[in-house]
Amino acid sequence: MGDCCGCDLDIKAMQEAQKRVLRTVMLINIATFGMMVGAAWYSRSSALLSGTLDNLGDAVTYALSLSVVAAGARAKARVAVFKGALISCAALGVAIQIGWRLAHPTVPIFEGMGVAAILNLAANLYCLRLLNPYRAGDVNMASAWECSRNDVFEGIAVIVATVAVWVFDAGWPDIVVAIALLLLFLRSAFRVLRSATLAYRASPSNT
């Protein structure tokens, strides 16, 4: 009995730690979403807009992850499927924006892009550091880590786009990076959906 009580306490402590991390990264993503919306509008950057949509999707993703920390394996798998769908929606939003920018070419304001990109990357690196201990955990926390890792790649890519826009004084680097991020989102959506599907099939029907 003592061992069982100890196990229950360990599980509850682990779940509380997961909830604290998810609350923190959710709030960070909400804050960076607001910052990136203004920066994307000011800078006229497709790459920044992709980051904006990603931050919004991640905030929702972390909220969903938070809601099922103590749930069963099948419930977590269902939420992970929804996360994969959200990433796919973000990819669709980026694709639409890329199409619009191709039809209306412009040179982004690299100063605005640079400041926003650096702040966003710093926030994303902190979130990844918080989630890193859970990267090999259950499908719920692993998918949250996957989203955070994508954020870091996205942040680095936007900085690269900013430098290229400044060097070439052209809008095409912004479009190229936005396309690269689109491919990253699609790959991530596939990975999350595949893991969630496997977890769902392997989990008992009553969880």
UniProtKB/TrEMBL annotation:
<dbReference type="InterPro" id="IPR027469">
    <property type="entry name" value="Cation_efflux_TMD_sf"/>
</dbReference>
<protein>
    <recommendedName>
        <fullName>Cation efflux protein transmembrane domain-containing protein</fullName>
    </recommendedName>
</protein>
<feature type="domain" description="Cation efflux protein transmembrane">
    <location>
        <begin position="25"/>
        <end position="197"/>
    </location>
</feature>
<feature type="transmembrane region" description="Helical">
    <location>
        <begin position="112"/>
        <end position="131"/>
    </location>
</feature>
<keyword id="KW-0472">Membrane</keyword>
<feature type="transmembrane region" description="Helical">
    <location>
        <begin position="80"/>
        <end position="100"/>
    </location>
</feature>
<feature type="transmembrane region" description="Helical">
    <location>
        <begin position="55"/>
        <end position="73"/>
    </location>
</feature>
<keyword id="KW-1133">Transmembrane helix</keyword>
<feature type="transmembrane region" description="Helical">
    <location>
        <begin position="21"/>
        <end position="43"/>
    </location>
</feature>
<dbReference type="InterPro" id="IPR058533">
    <property type="entry name" value="Cation_efflux_TM"/>
</dbReference>
<feature type="transmembrane region" description="Helical">
    <location>
        <begin position="175"/>
        <end position="193"/>
    </location>
</feature>
<feature type="transmembrane region" description="Helical">
    <location>
        <begin position="152"/>
        <end position="169"/>
    </location>
</feature>
<dbReference type="Pfam" id="PF01545">
    <property type="entry name" value="Cation_efflux"/>
</dbReference>
<keyword id="KW-0812">Transmembrane</keyword>
